[in-house]
User: What shape does this take?
Amino acid sequence: MKSNLLPLGLLTLLLSSSLSGASAQPGPAAAAKKADEEWLALKDLGQPKSQSPGGPVSPAAAAQARQQFAVGLVRDADRLKEFRTTNPAHAGAKKAKRLEALLLVQAWRAGASSSASRRTQLVAEIRGDASLPAASRAEVAALAEHVAVAKRPGLSRDGRLAAYEQAVRGLTAEFPELPNGYESLVQIAKDSSDAKAQAIARNVLGLAAAPATVKAEAQILLDRHALVGRPVAELVRPILGAANPIERAKGRPLVLYSWATFAAGSHALAADLAARTPAGVALVGLCLDFRDLAPAKALATAQKLPGEQLYDWLGRRGEVAERLKLTDPALAFVIDAGGIIRAVSAQRDLPATLAALAATKP
Assistant: This one.
C-alpha cells in the first residue's frame, strides 16, 4: 500500500520555504519605520526649485530646460502619490497630497501639458479638505489661481491686473481669516493705474476682516496719491531747509525716486532713469536703508545711481520718506518745473512719463 506521507526531505524543504516567506513580510513596526524613512526623503520635494539653466542659452535650449524641469516636477509628484496611496494612514499622507498638488501646479506653470485633470481634481480636493490648516489649503489655491491668470493669453497689463484682483477677491472670500489675500490686494493697487489704485485702497479700508497693518498700507497709498497738485517745497523745506536737492531743481522737471540696498527692483529703476531721462530733467534719489548707511553709499557709488542722493538713518521711517509717503523702494514722483507734484506712481509707466517730461517746457 502506497503511503500518503511526503518524503522527509521534501517536507523539510516545503516547511523551510514557508517559514522563509513568512519571515520576509515586515511586521507593523518595520513597515512604519520604512514609511517614516520614505517620508523623510520626500517631504522637501515641494520646496521651490530653480528652472534656470544658468548662463546665456538659446531660446531652444531654454525651452528644453523648462520641459525637463516640468517633467522632473511631475516625476516627483508621482513619487508623492505613490507614498500617500501606499501609506494612507501615515501622518505625512495628507502633507504628501498637498505637496503633490503644489508640484503639479508648478509643472503646469513650467509648461507641462499632461496631468491637467489630475491636477484640477487634486487642487479642488485640497481646497475642500477642512481637516487641513487653512494656510496650507490657501497656499495651493493661491498658486493655482495665480498660474491660471498668468497663462491667460491676450491680456493687457491692466486686464491681467484686473484678473489677478478677481482671483484674489475670490481667495479672500474663501479664506477670510488669512491676511495674504488682503496683502495681495494692496500690492495689486500699487501696480494699478492711479484711479484703480485708489479705488482698491478705499475698498480694503472698508473690509472688516482686513488686518490693521494692511489697512495702514492702503491708507499710505491713498495719502501718497493725495499729494498730487501740492508744492513739494512745503513738504520738504521744514525738514531739509531751503538749500536741498529737491528745491534746487526748481525751474526744471524733477524725478524723485526711492531705493534701498535690499530692493533689486529699485536698482533697476535707477538704471532705467540714468539711461533714459531726457536732458534738462533733474534726478534725486531717496535711500530707505535703515541705520547703517555705509553699504548704501557704497552701492550708490558703485552703481552710479543718478542724481543727488538723500540719506536718513531712519530709512523709510525718516521724516522725508514719511511726509512724501515714499516708504517703499522703487517708487518715482514727477515734480514739474514749478515745483508741483504731478505724479506719484511714475514707475508704473516710465517710458510714457519720461516722454511727457521731455515735452515739458521749463
Observations:
- The chain has a mean pLDDT of 89.
